[in-house]
Write a structure and sequence with these properties.
6 helices, Arp2/3 complex 21 kDa subunit ARPC3, mainly alpha, single chain, 72% helix, 173 residues, 0% strand, globular
């Protein structure tokens, strides 16, 4: 049990550090709210386990680290609205990644892309509800493209990191 807590604490710390680094990056592609999604690396790695095997992954661990990271990063680097948007995106993303991770058709990068797109769609749904404006629909294709690129970035990094983390020890990353 204490090994699991220590491992999850380490992943939470990495996710928070990546959240902080991401908040410092002057990333402005001209579309508000788009970020590389680097903190999701911890979630993808926990979801799959060190072997890159979906069966070895821990949905509960990934969900717990993601929830704690969103709340803590929101209070440290964001606002209540950023927590609301991030939670909506995280729920959609984790749901989609859990559905598709066991299909042999998708690699870790493919599942991460689906998660990135789902994350942006979840945030888009909240924005539609909060703003009550139809003009946001023009924004959706850009969000899907951004989610695809960010998901691919996170997925490729996760695929590269997983074998090294397995060597570092343990069943799960």
């Amino acid at each position: 049990m204490s090994g699991r807590v220590a491992r999850l604490g380490l992943y939470l710390t990495v996710a928070l550090v990546l959240s902080y680094v991401e908040s410092l990056i002057p990333f402005s592609p001209g579309i508000p709210g788009i970020k590389p999604g680097l903190p999701n690396l911890a979630v993808v790695l926990l979801l799959y386990g060190a072997q890159g095997d979906a069966a070895a992954g821990g949905v509960r661990d990934a969900a717990l680290v993601n929830l704690l990271r969103i709340v803590l990063a929101g209070f440290l680097f964001g606002s209540l609205y950023s927590i609301l948007y991030a939670l909506a995106g995280a729920v959609c993303s984790l749901f989609v990644m859990c559905l598709f991770r066991r299909l042999p058709v998708f690699s870790i990068a493919g599942v991460s892309v689906l998660g990135g797109v789902a994350h942006n769609i979840g945030q888009f749904a909240v924005a539609l509800f909060v703003t009550e404006t139809a003009y946001l629909w023009y924004y959706l294709p850009f969000l899907i493209a951004a989610g695809t690129v960010a998901g691919m970035l996170v997925g490729v990094i996760a695929m590269a990191a997983a074998p090294h983390l397995q060597k570092a020890g343990g069943r799960s990353v």
